[in-house]
Design goal:
This protein has 9 helices and 11 strands. The protein is α+β, with helices and mostly antiparallel strands. The strands form 2 sheets. It has an 8-stranded mixed beta sheet. A 3-stranded antiparallel beta sheet has the order 1-2-3, sandwiched between helices.
Length: about 260
């Protein structure tokens, strides 16, 4: 099965609610950046899987029937885990274990929202980044570059990016990635030597402050095991909104992803 064409993917995206769990895949498809595999009709699909190009190993699945979701996943290369609602996840895990004859594990994906002004944090090396910082950002390691835009320049001009700069190098960054009419997602990374210095909190504060000024509710999501990320969210004033679930397949992680037969 081939992914849906752009018109079908856009139609499916417009049917997704503007909600902390779903605005991300919705934005990805509406920007023409992701791919969608859709079962049956686009306006009333029984299942769908959405893949972001920067997260091909972690697609998002929609639908309540695990067998139907599997019928799509088995056509998609590269995935190692699947993000979906917590009610369907255990059933999908059983199907994957049966079909691939391997073990799985369930891991929570924790969503936070910021429905109040962010708690201020500053750092002397952290500031907002603009189009004048294009070369700086493009020279940085890939985890520090913003995603979900057609180019780094469009992220710097149309999005919101903040970072820590040491010796003329970007060493930490937080940026707005996907967004909708109501929500905007924050994501980022700090290089190992500069962690635990408050750069992520300072950069996150600048981004969240601007998002709130634009009338958007900032959203932060992270795995249940990522204590460092959860700590930053708490320091900024985010509150837990809810949880989705990852069905993780360790054998696929070791093999570099699923390969359709």
């Amino acid at each position: 099965m081939e992914p849906a064409d752009s018109a079908a993917a856009e139609e499916f995206a417009r049917g997704l609610p503007d909600h902390p769990f779903t605005f991300g895949p919705r934005c990805i498809l509406l920007r023409g950046l992701g791919r969608a595999w859709i079962h049956r009709s686009v306006d009333r699909p029984s299942a769908a899987v959405v893949v972001a190009p920067w997260l091909e190993a972690e697609p998002a699945a929609f639908g309540s029937d695990a067998e139907t979701i599997w019928s799509l996943l088995k056509e998609i290369p590269g995935w190692t885990c699947v993000n979906l609602d917590s009610e369907t996840a255990p059933d999908l895990a059983k199907v994957i274990e049966r079909e691939l004859r391997t073990s799985t594990r369930l891991s929570a994906d924790v969503y936070y929202v910021l429905d109040r002004p962010p708690i201020p944090h500053t750092h002397p090396a952290v500031r907002r980044l603009t189009e004048d910082d294009l070369e700086l950002v493009e020279a940085a390691p890939e985890p520090l570059r913003p995603v979900a835009y057609l180019s780094t320049l469009s992220a710097l001009t149309g999005g919101v990016v903040a970072g820590g700069i040491v010796d003329a190098r970007l060493v930490a960054s937080i940026s707005m990635s996907v967004s909708s009419e109501e929500y905007a997602d924050l994501g980022g990374h700090t290089l190992e030597p500069w962690r635990n210095q408050g750069m992520a909190s300072a950069a996150g504060y600048l981004v969240a402050l601007e998002l709130r000024a634009r009338g958007l509710t900032p959203v932060w999501s992270t795995g249940e095991d990522n204590v460092r990320s959860q700590r930053v969210a708490s320091k900024l004033g985010f509150r837990e909104f809810g949880r989705e679930t990852y069905v993780v397949v360790p054998a696929l992680q070791a093999a570099g992803g699923f390969h359709p037969p």
